[in-house]
Amino acid sequence: MVKRNAQKWFRHGSWWRRLRNNRKYRDVLFRRLFRDKKDLLDLYNALNGSTYTNPEELEIVTMEDVIFMKMKNDLSFMIGNTLNLYEHQSTWNPNMPLRGLLYFAQQFEGLLASSDDDIYGTKRVELPTPVYIVFYNGTGMQSDNLLLYLSDSFSAGRGSGCME
Fold first, then answer.
1. How does 96-126 read in b/e, with b if 16+ C-beta sit within 10 Å?
2. Which of 120, 128, 149, 164 is the most buried (most CB within 10 A)?
3. pLDDT at 67
4. Which domain holds residue 24?
5. Does residue 164 fall inside a structural domain?
6. How confident is the chain (164 residues) per 10-residue block, as mean pLDDT?
């Protein structure tokens, strides 16, 4: 269970002291907690109300050195027909939708390169549905659950453009 692993990692006092003072360690902890497919599947099921039981149905597709500040993204995986990106943030960042767009575009490009699909052909190319969740534990947000929109970044504001 996810809770069991969290307790195991937080028992190490020196880890906790370093985590409190260094964002990089907190990101490492998040990735370590969920690097095991079983634990990641438990997290996925908890967030989605699903009941997957076979961790082998989950395919890890976390990318190294992606465009986000030359760091790897936290967790990315496919299950069913969804491409999931889970990020941990300890600093408030209103640009997460833009970062998600860039990440998913890069992932889709990789998926298309490894398939026979032709984006210039007459048949619609089917993509996995992107799901982007950011776990935030900082002090800059007022509510427990907040939905950010890509169009918030557009000069005309929320609801403008044709990306959402």
1. bbebbbebbeebbeebeeeeeeeeeeeeeee
2. 128
3. 46
4. 2-153
5. no
6. 44 46 59 85 93 92 57 77 89 87 89 88 92 85 80 81 70
- Helix H, strand E, coil C: the string for 107-158 is HHHHHHHCCCCCCCCCCCCCCCEEEEEEEECCCCCCCCCCCCCHHHHCCCCC
pLDDT at position 72: 54
| C-alpha distances out from residue 159 to 20, 99, 150, Å | 38, 18, 9
Domain count, the chain: 1
The pLDDT assigned to 78 comes to 92
Q: What is the pTM of this model?
A: 0.73
DSSP state of 76: E
Q: Is residue 160 a part of any domain in this protein? A: no
Give the residue among 49, 89, 46, 39 at the shortest CA–CA distance from 69: 89
Distance of alpha carbon 62 from alpha carbon 74, whole angstroms: 7
Look up tokens 């190319």; give the residue.
125
Joined together, the tokens standing for residue 71 give 């760091």
